[in-house]
Amino acid sequence: MKINLVLILVTVTWLLPHQIVAIRRTNFDSHICDIKRKAVTKTRLAYYYGHMYTQYYTDYETVYNCCPGYKKLSSSQCVPECSPQCPSNAQCIRPNVCQCSSGYFSLFSHPTTIKCQPICPRGCPENSQCTAPGVCSCNQGYDVSEAEKCVPICESPCPENADCVKPNQCACSKGYAKVESVSHNGTFVCQATCSPECPANSLCSKPNECSCEEGYLMKNGICEPICETPCMENGYCRKPNQCECVEGYEIGKADEVLVCVAKCENECPENGFCAEPNKCECDQGYAMSSNGTCDPVCDPACPENGKCSGPNECTCLKGYRMVDDHCEPICENECPEYAHCSQPNKCECSNGYQLKLTSSYNLFCEPQCRGNCSTFGKCVQPNRCECLEGYEMDEVEQCKPICVGGCLNGLCYRPGVCICNPGYLMGPFNTCEPTCSLPCQNGTCVEPEICQCSEGYRLQAGSVHICEPLCEPACHNGLCVEPNICLCHDNYEPTEMRQGAYNHSYCQKSTTSTVAASIGTELVTTTETSNPSSTAITTTTLAISPQPQNITRVTPKPTFPPQSCLDQCLCWQEYDEFGSISTQPKCVHICLDSHDKPCRNVTQCHCDNEKLQLLCAMEIEDYSEDDPQIYICKIPKPQTTTSMPTTNASNEMKITADPNENSGNLLWLLLSSFMGVCCLAALVFVVYRKYCQYEDPLVEYEL
């Protein structure tokens, strides 16, 4: 047991010296970074059951470690370390940071750069320095004056007007300048200085103070000589009691008295004199001009186109004359009315007029008007326009032509002349009528390419120009040939309703050999017998009244439908930008002569069955330039006759132009002969017109 205890003690005693226990980090203000506990083995005498032995035990010591940059001053105090050491009047307050003592200051704090200088709160005077806090001492060579200033000390006295400015160094006082002087034993003297320098004939007696020499007097900063007798005008006292003329003047005599007169290098002009050196002035009543001459002065000024010929004397320029104190131009020839002579031999129209030249080279003044008055109007007064005959003024003050009755669907080109719009042609009553390329049958062309059927007609299905008649009630076994007029088919006749009354809308089988055609307003039935043995032929003749649409049915050929040739002959007068290019209206487009040119003298249109068009027939003997301006195409209206033979059961209807066959043949023979002569004459006339007649200078406008 004892042995074990001893072993334990020995073991503990061996281990404890090697143990260092960190206790804690301590106060930073003492700059001790850490504190450690160090185990130390110590011995002591101990008794155990009456036995004394050496006991080893462990004790702890506190170990202080300073922070970097600090050194241990004592076992428990660390102080900062500065290298090199801080100078006098400074302490090391942090590692390598010095601080001046109270009353001293430095711009730097490092031990190598710090310089602690004493502080004098009120500052030290010139030529002194602060030697201790609040204590100033004069520099060497200076001494304290009564005014407590450090003044330099000069062992030898300074000359007059000089001061001791540095130790043993003299300088001239302010306002004086140093001048070497031999008379003063090689030293200098101080003379007063004046700025600016003193004028001539004066001395600088004091700083910036000049005094004139004898015989001179200070005036305005200049020492002027004194002349007891005043000098003459433009002269000056050059020296005491001596006069001379100023520059630009010279000595002259006036009334045996010496005077100074001006000199001019160049001779003065006429009516002028030398008033100042090289300056000429004009005599009274004259003024110097820009070119250096003395011109007379007129007050008041001369009128326009006049000149001042002498003082207050005006004369007019050439070509002008004096009238009531103004110069008027002279025109040898009298100016026209509304004009005045504006310049010599030049007339100018009054305001609102302009100068014109007549065909005989005579001048006249014509009034001027705004707008387009000269085209179809006459300017009678300035800005007053009167339209020519046949023209009237519109709302924009322009003269427009007048067309009697207006110019509907057209443009009034000139008085009484209307140019129709496209799709319209001039009709026989000086109105623009619409045109349709396909003639309207049983209707009227009311607008370009638009047909309006007459009363009792309607447009045929699929057609825009053919109107077919309407029958109410509808025709039965017959054909509706006129409004509410039926024409029975072959072998049919109107139904007899009562004695003398027939129903034309309903046709029944014919029981007689007489056929009645109800196609007109006048029905004539006749019976003719060609020979005693032949059967009598009953003929019904209808006299057709003229219709408004002027459609003429003519004898057709089997292959020529009646509607192919219609009397659509229209009268037209042509124009270009210069006006009318024809003296006579023309029948154009449909009615053409043999040369396909518009007819000039249209008296009759006829239908050509071969060409299927209307042609213009010309009557040469009736042609005259004095014929009326408008021609109406006269188309004869043939009577229509219907006949039907009673023999051989042939009921074919025939349409002829005349009921009298013999007289008809004779008439056609005469007409054929007459037409042949007319065609020959027309051919001769056309050749004459084309090659012999004088051509109109205006180009004909072709439609």
Automatic annotation (TrEMBL):
<dbReference type="InterPro" id="IPR009030">
    <property type="entry name" value="Growth_fac_rcpt_cys_sf"/>
</dbReference>
<feature type="domain" description="EGF-like">
    <location>
        <begin position="263"/>
        <end position="295"/>
    </location>
</feature>
<dbReference type="InterPro" id="IPR053255">
    <property type="entry name" value="EGF-like_domain"/>
</dbReference>
<feature type="domain" description="EGF-like">
    <location>
        <begin position="193"/>
        <end position="224"/>
    </location>
</feature>
<feature type="domain" description="EGF-like">
    <location>
        <begin position="435"/>
        <end position="468"/>
    </location>
</feature>
<dbReference type="InterPro" id="IPR000742">
    <property type="entry name" value="EGF"/>
</dbReference>
<feature type="domain" description="EGF-like">
    <location>
        <begin position="297"/>
        <end position="328"/>
    </location>
</feature>
<feature type="domain" description="EGF-like">
    <location>
        <begin position="470"/>
        <end position="508"/>
    </location>
</feature>
<feature type="domain" description="EGF-like">
    <location>
        <begin position="81"/>
        <end position="117"/>
    </location>
</feature>
<feature type="domain" description="EGF-like">
    <location>
        <begin position="119"/>
        <end position="151"/>
    </location>
</feature>
<feature type="signal peptide">
    <location>
        <begin position="1"/>
        <end position="22"/>
    </location>
</feature>
<keyword id="KW-0472">Membrane</keyword>
<feature type="domain" description="EGF-like">
    <location>
        <begin position="153"/>
        <end position="191"/>
    </location>
</feature>
<keyword id="KW-0732">Signal</keyword>
<feature type="transmembrane region" description="Helical">
    <location>
        <begin position="666"/>
        <end position="688"/>
    </location>
</feature>
<feature type="domain" description="EGF-like">
    <location>
        <begin position="402"/>
        <end position="433"/>
    </location>
</feature>
<feature type="domain" description="EGF-like">
    <location>
        <begin position="368"/>
        <end position="400"/>
    </location>
</feature>
<feature type="domain" description="EGF-like">
    <location>
        <begin position="226"/>
        <end position="261"/>
    </location>
</feature>
<protein>
    <submittedName>
        <fullName>Tenascin-X isoform X2</fullName>
    </submittedName>
</protein>
<feature type="domain" description="EGF-like">
    <location>
        <begin position="330"/>
        <end position="366"/>
    </location>
</feature>
<keyword id="KW-1133">Transmembrane helix</keyword>
<keyword id="KW-0812">Transmembrane</keyword>
